[in-house]
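ok new one. same drill as before - structure tokens go in, u give me an amino acid for every spot. 251 of them this time. try not to just spam alanines like last time pls lmao
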């Protein structure tokens, strides 16, 4: 009887310890923090409201974190520093209106796209630009390290009358546009509209139906890529992305 009791106690103890380990593992998973890099100068996608970074991409990142069941930390940096930050492991992923390109795919990985938008130029009322052809002899402002920069450089390589002016911050480019140091700034339509609302003498010109797609960026072979892709699909099906879109793009 004593041997049987000892065996039963051992079984109960093993079951209790196993249960405790499972709870601990679950708690550990819930306490995992993923660090996201962004460039908080692109309203309405990522920008400062007081001391907080808010915007479409920030809400998308928060929704993904909730879906996966992890905590989210956001780090602001220059757009041109985002890819090096992924490569060095300083951030786990990037949401910053970043477009997958063949060049970027050589050094980092991407999720499936979560948004596609038209590309435009924003210019002053006194500058006559109606199409891509009208960019001849113009000075084009672009964000350093962006696909817009590559687009402008490709144009300039075909037309030597075009010059390209690259800066880190979009707000600085808008200021350069207002004082006449550049003739146009290339960006996607939602950010351009945000700047136009703050500057009434600026106009938007579509770029011949060109579009840009945004995706989450990761270091090569990231363990998060598959989980984020699954969460993006679930959030689309559940209508969560549409709610975020209505929140930031409805006006």
């Amino acid at each position: 009887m004593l041997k049987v009791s000892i065996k039963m106690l051992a079984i109960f103890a093993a079951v209790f310890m196993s249960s405790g380990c499972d709870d601990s593992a679950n708690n550990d998973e819930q306490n995992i923090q993923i660090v996201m890099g962004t460039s908080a100068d692109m309203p309405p996608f990522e920008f400062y409201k007081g001391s907080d970074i808010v915007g479409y991409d920030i809400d998308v990142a928060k929704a993904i974190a909730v879906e996966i069941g992890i905590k989210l930390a956001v780090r602001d940096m220059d757009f041109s520093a985002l890819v090096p930050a992924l490569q060095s492991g300083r951030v786990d992923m990037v949401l910053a209106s970043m477009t997958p390109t063949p060049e970027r795919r050589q050094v980092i990985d991407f999720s499936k796209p979560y948004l596609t938008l038209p590309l435009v130029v924003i210019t002053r009322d006194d500058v006559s630009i109606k199409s891509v052809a009208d960019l001849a002899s113009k000075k084009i402002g672009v964000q350093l390290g962006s696909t817009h920069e590559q687009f402008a450089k490709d144009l300039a390589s075909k037309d030597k009358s075009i010059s390209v002016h690259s800066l880190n911050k979009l707000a600085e480019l808008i200021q350069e546009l207002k004082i006449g140091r550049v003739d146009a700034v290339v960006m996607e339509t939602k950010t351009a509209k945000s700047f136009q609302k703050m500057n009434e003498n600026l106009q938007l010109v579509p770029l011949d139906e060109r579009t840009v797609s945004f995706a989450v960026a990761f270091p090569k072979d990231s363990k998060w890529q598959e989980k984020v892709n699954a969460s993006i699909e679930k959030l689309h099906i559940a209508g969560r992305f549409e709610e975020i879109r209505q929140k930031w793009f409805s006006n």
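Residues 2-30 form the longest helix (29 residues). and btw The chain has nine helices and 13 strands.
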